[in-house]
Amino acid sequence: MLMGGCAASPGLRRALTAAYKPANVYVRQPILPPAIRRVAVLPLPRSPEDGDQAAGADSLGPLWLDELVKRNIFEVVPVSAEDLHTITGRSGWSAEDELPLDFFQRLRQATGCDAVLFACLTAYRAYPPLRAGWRARLVDSSQHLTWWSIDELFDAGAGSVAIAAEAYARAELNLPNPLLSDTGVLHSPRRFGQYTTWAVASTLPHR
Predict the structure, then answer these.
(1) Can you give the pLDDT at residue 82?
(2) Domain segments of the chain as ranges
């Protein structure tokens, strides 16, 4: 009995674990400047070599846009891969790429944007333990200043991430019974993807 009392059960260990909060985040200031009202949101780049990443970009891209619209921080101007290719010569860009000198000027002329939001999936796994890595950056289109950036890996195999994902699912998703301990978020790529987009977007500056 004494030995049993020394080893915490998995349920107790989960209960004692704090919910995960993204930490690798940069925010220039907590409130967005009035000049940033209209933001061109670029599509998630698809890897030609990594089929899992490409599938993740296809499935999580719409969820990312939905979450940004729900935040209502700025006017979301989605840029399709086809339009981006017409404007810039490529259908996908990350903030780490070497951009053309007139990149922001082209997007500003085409969309009327005050800023550009880059995002990409750095990792994706659609089977348990689910995983999604996000790297994103908000850059104004005039001075090219970074107002916000994040680089995070959400791994459902980590106890703190699992706790945060389940708490999100119970509070935010329309579940048949929100009191159920098993929300399915740790086994559903879509639900876990919704959690990760929410977690990433929640670190954006406020209006």
Answers:
(1) 97
(2) 24-201
